[in-house]
From TrEMBL, chain A:
UniProt key word Transferase: yes
Record SUPFAM superfamilies: PTS system IIB component-like (SSF52794)
Top-rank taxon: Bacteria
InterPro entries in alphabetical order: PTS_EIIB-like_sf, PTS_EIIB_2, PTS_EIIB_2/3
Upper classification of the organism: Bacteria, Bacillati, Bacillota, Bacilli, Lactobacillales
Protein name: PTS galactitol transporter subunit IIB
Length: 95, 137
């Protein structure tokens, strides 16, 4: 079944674009791109949807309200290159 | 420079003068940095990648600032305090556009050798040339 993967950042304009690109590249390399439906947005628009459990996997490159913290994967390593592999593994485990 | 708001203000002013961003950009990008910090600590260096909504932008531009003395920023995601040496301010006219440029920028900040060269560059022309050489224009 296809899983929805929401990538959020502060503006929904720059870093979520980079993070989405990184995740797509990785999933393509393991042949799993078609298992995921990619979505992108800004955190302010998504808090309630995340709370409601509208998405299967959520990656954020920005700070998220503590109420939804447990549901969100920190995507900053995708930008810094420090700990990138770990993020990929956590995402892949949710597929 | 006293703090990151001063550093950001300086590049934003420059980008306003160049016409790439509207007068509203500066206050928007300064506020955005407070609400959603953009510092990133790579293995090599601390950088920041401030940006704000497309409505404040006239056309795409990358503003680059190398700081003589590092300035404190908060890191994206976890809010930890980091020391920043380079600021790459993004003016993006469209959401989700410029993926290629952003990816090159991210690759650049993760490249120890290139970062060293950027830190050693003696003038703005050299920095622009190095950025152009990795496909950032």
């Amino acid at each position: 079944m296809t899983k929805s993967l929401m990538v959020v950042c502060g503006t929904g304009i720059a870093t979520s674009t980079i993070a989405t690109g990184k995740v797509k590249e990785y999933l393509a390399s393991v042949g799993k791109t078609d298992q995921v439906k990619f979505l992108q947005s800004k955190i302010a628009d998504e808090v309630s949807a995340i709370e409601n459990g509208d998405y299967d996997i959520i990656v954020s490159t920005t700070m998220v309200p503590s109420a939804i913290k447990d549901k969100v994967i920190n995507g900053v390593p995708l930008l810094t290159g420090v700990g990138t592999q770990k993020v990929f593994e956590v995402i892949e485990a949710k597929l | 420079m006293a703090d990151n708001q001063e550093a950001l203000g300086q590049i934003a002013d420059q980008m306003t003068r160049s016409g790439a961003v509207k007068d509203s950009y500066k206050s928007a990008v300064l506020k955005r940095e407070v609400d959603f910090p953009t510092g990133l600590a790579t293995v090599n260096i601390g950088i920041a990648m401030p940006h704000t909504d497309a409505k404040h932008v006239n056309y795409d531009q990358l503003g680059v600032l190398r700081l003589r003395e590092p300035v404190s920023f908060l890191q994206m995601g976890d809010g930890e305090k980091i020391q920043v040496k380079f600021v790459f301010m993004l003016a993006l006219k469209e959401a989700h556009a410029q993926l290629a440029m952003l990816q090159k920028l991210i690759a650049l900040i993760q490249d120890e050798e290139k970062i060293k060269q950027l830190l050693l560059a003696e003038n703005t022309d050299e920095i622009i040339e190095m950025l152009n050489n990795v496909g950032i224009e």
